[in-house]
Amino acid sequence: MKPSYLLPAFPLVLGACTVPLHGTAIAEDLAVTLRPVVSAADYQTQTQPDLTPYRAQDIEHLVIGLYTVDGSVETQVVRGGVPVTADVPRASLGGSVTFNNLHSDTTYRFRAFAYKASGTATDDLISQTATGSHVDVSIGRNTRPTLAALPVRLVDRLFSATASGTIVVTPGSVVHEDESMTFVDPTPSPSPSGGEG
């Protein structure tokens, strides 16, 4: 009977499969580098020299949130019970931001929240949140860093105004044309007394 060499070789083949294949990576090797691109807002008004739309210099800091996207479902990425974000001060807006430890075969959404003051108060938020201030990036199995531009669309500047005015009434004139009027009394006049007695 011939000895079987297939069984002893089988565990060696399984052990070789645990080595990552070329072009694949574990989660800790994947990264996305973003470059924020700020788009100025508009405003609706007539010529007002003192009113300007929001610009990049109005941003005190930019918060970038990390989300995963599966179809139409967006889920915020949380690590250690804390949402994953990057806080970029105004002085660093011209640079780039890198998110590390991302998973392969995942679509990430990076959302930008621009604030005109420190903190994250809703009243200080000056970027659009529904549309215009996010980018979706699909991570495959390539270990090269992914680069993406992150649009930051600023909201229209709101303003209020008051005005006062004066109403001037100019006297008019009456123009008469040749007319004639006849007055008819609607009550019958009493007949003169006299008659039979």
Q: What would your notes on this structure say?
A:
The strands form three sheets. Strands 2, 3, 6, 8 and 9 form a five-stranded antiparallel beta sheet that branches. The chain is 6% helix and 32% strand. The longest helix is centred in the first third of the chain and has 11 residues, at 6-16. It is mainly beta and 197 residues long. A hairpin with a 2-residue loop joins strand 2 (61-70) and strand 3. The protein has one helix at residues 6-16; strands spanning 30-39, 61-70, 73-76, 78-79, 82-83, 85-89, 97-102, 106-115, 134-139, 146-153.
Q: What is the overall number of helices? A: 1
Q: Give the ordered list of helices and strands.
A: HEEEEEEEEEE
Task: List unreliable stretches of 5+ residues.
Answer: 1-28
CA radius of gyration: 40 Å
Task: Give the structural class.
Answer: mainly beta
CA distance, first residue to last residue: 169 Å
How many strand segments? Answer: 10
**Overall geometric form:** elongated
Largest sheet, described in full? 5 strands, antiparallel
Q: Give the strand content.
A: 25-35%
Mean pLDDT: 76
Helix share, percent: under 10%
